[in-house]
């Protein structure tokens, strides 16, 4: 199959893992890269054997089919719109956009031009969350009735070398980490129906204690503690906390509760929930005396092995950013749906704004958009192949 040629816009720190992983997939290749700092693009191009271009050149190059948008969140809308108007598909880092209006414009322009929009996070396609998805599909916890999604830590100014942007518009705990948790919830439970939320900005200023900016004072422009509930269309209710204000806790990171049992992600690291591809998932059925580990990947299954004996086997336990892009490339070449799509990314964007709207109004926010729950990936799919 002919590879889909990708043009990367934005060659910052996160770009490396995309370059490395795209080279492993059979259906995509990095053809060119661009950055406002052309020297940085040239460095990446030399390192990963592709062409360095200006942003204008990469948008105009007819060989580039997909723009992989790795710019800062505030630039996602502008870059996506330029790409779509140039006749190129787009796949963006999260979030899809800063505002709902920007997200709507991206999707409407893509639809008008017959193009596809994909968006991170694609961590829900990793081994751990796909295990949870398959266990849910096969009825191991029965009908889902509730979930918890807790990302609680103290601010990034204690460790990040340049933490200011975490406290500006488009960031904070909800917009920075929320997309991982909300996408995971939608991937397992389907679209949301309505949201209730409260939000607080506990500290109006933060002092950086990490190097090299230790001592610098940051003005905080966004809520740093957000809490609320999500009612899903299937009737399940999720409780969510996103916080940069908590020093420590004993809360679970991510759990789904059903009529027949519970699935739990139990990592002690507050930044090791649905935002990573790997990790332990525990399952406890109603008739079991204790939790059962479901580590992935497991030995390959054969068709004669019943699910009651061996839980599902999924790869992608390492940092596998690019899975969603490869899945979109499959849809470009062969048609059909793909999982990390723009409709789900916009639904998650609306959910985040829904928390703020509910907090400001003191009433429920009724969701306007919807999306499909993405299909669970096939078991034992060959590594670095999205299949048919």
How many helices in DSSP terms? 9
Gyration radius over CA: 21 Å
Instruction: Give a quick account of the main beta sheet: strands, pairing sense, barrel closure.
Output: 9 strands, mixed
- Find the count of extended strands (DSSP E, 2+ residues): 17
The average pLDDT value, as a whole number, equals: 91
Task: Characterize the overall form.
Answer: globular
Strand percentage lies at: 15-25%
Instruction: Kindly report how far apart the N and C termini lie.
Output: 11 Å
CATH-scheme architecture of the largest domain:
2-Layer Sandwich
Count of distinct structural domains? 2
CATH fold-level assignment of the largest domain: Dihydrodipicolinate Reductase, domain 2
The main sheet orders its strands as 16-15-14-13-7-12-11-8-17
- State the share of residues found in helices, binned by percent: 25-40%
CATH class of the largest domain, please?
A: Alpha Beta
Query: Which ranges are low-confidence, i.e. pLDDT below 50, for 5 or more consecutive residues?
Result: none
Order of helices and strands: EHEHEHEHEHEHEHEEEEEEEEEHHE
What does the model show?
The protein is of the alpha/beta class and 388 residues long. The chain folds into 2 domains: 116 residues, Rossmann fold (3-Layer(aba) Sandwich), CATH 3.40.50.720; 206 residues, Dihydrodipicolinate Reductase, domain 2 (2-Layer Sandwich). The chain is built from 9 helices and 17 strands. The strands form 3 sheets. It has a 9-stranded mixed sheet with strand order 16-15-14-13-7-12-11-8-17. A 6-stranded parallel sheet has the order 3-2-1-4-5-6, with helices on both faces. A two-stranded antiparallel ribbon has the order 9-10. Helix 4 runs parallel beside helix 5 and helix 5 packs antiparallel against helix 9.
């Amino acid at each position: 199959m002919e590879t889909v040629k990708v043009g990367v816009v934005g060659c910052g720190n996160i770009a490396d893992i995309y370059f490395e992983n795209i080279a492993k997939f059979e259906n995509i290749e990095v053809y060119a890269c661009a950055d406002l700092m052309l020297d940085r693009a040239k460095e990446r191009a030399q390192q990963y054997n592709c062409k360095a271009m200006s942003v204008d050149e990469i948008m105009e190059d007819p060989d580039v089919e997909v723009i992989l948008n790795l710019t800062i969140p505030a630039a996602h809308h502008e870059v996506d719109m330029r790409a779509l108007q140039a006749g190129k598909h787009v796949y963006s880092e999260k979030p899809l956009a800063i505002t709902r209006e920007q997200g709507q414009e991206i999707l409407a322009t893509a639809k008008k031009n017959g193009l596809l929009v994909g968006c991170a996070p694609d961590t829900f396609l990793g081994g751990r969350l796909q295990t949870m998805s398959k266990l849910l599909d096969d009825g191991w916890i029965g009908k889902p009735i509730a979930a918890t999604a807790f990302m609680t830590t103290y601010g990034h100014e204690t460790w990040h070398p340049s933490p200011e942007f975490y406290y500006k518009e488009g960031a904070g705990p909800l917009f920075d980490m929320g997309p991982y948790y909300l996408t995971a919830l939608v991937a397992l439970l389907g679209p949301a129906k309505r949201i209730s939320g409260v939000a607080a900005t506990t500290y109006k200023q933060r002092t950086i204690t990490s190097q090299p900016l230790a001592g610098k004072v940051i003005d905080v422009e966004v809520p740093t503690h957000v809490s609320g509930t999500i009612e899903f269309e299937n009737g399940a209710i999720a409780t969510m906390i996103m916080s940069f204000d908590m020093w420590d806790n004993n809360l679970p990171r991510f759990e789904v509760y059903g009529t027949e049992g519970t699935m739990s992600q139990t990592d002690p690291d507050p930044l090791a929930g649905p935002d990573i591809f790997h990790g332990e998932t525990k399952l406890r059925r109603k008739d079991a005396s204790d939790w059962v580990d479901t580590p992935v990947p497991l030995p390959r299954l054969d068709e004669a092995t019943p699910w009651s004996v061996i839980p599902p086997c999924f790869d992608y336990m390492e940092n596998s950013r690019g899975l969603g892009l490869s899945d979109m490339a499959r849809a470009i070449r062969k048609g059909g749906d793909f999982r990390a799509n723009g409709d789900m990314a916009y639904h998650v964007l609306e959910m985040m704004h829904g928390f703020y709207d509910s907090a400001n109004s003191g009433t429920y926010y009724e969701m306007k958009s919807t999306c499909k729950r993405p299909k669970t990936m096939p078991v034992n799919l060959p590594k670095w192949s999205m299949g048919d």
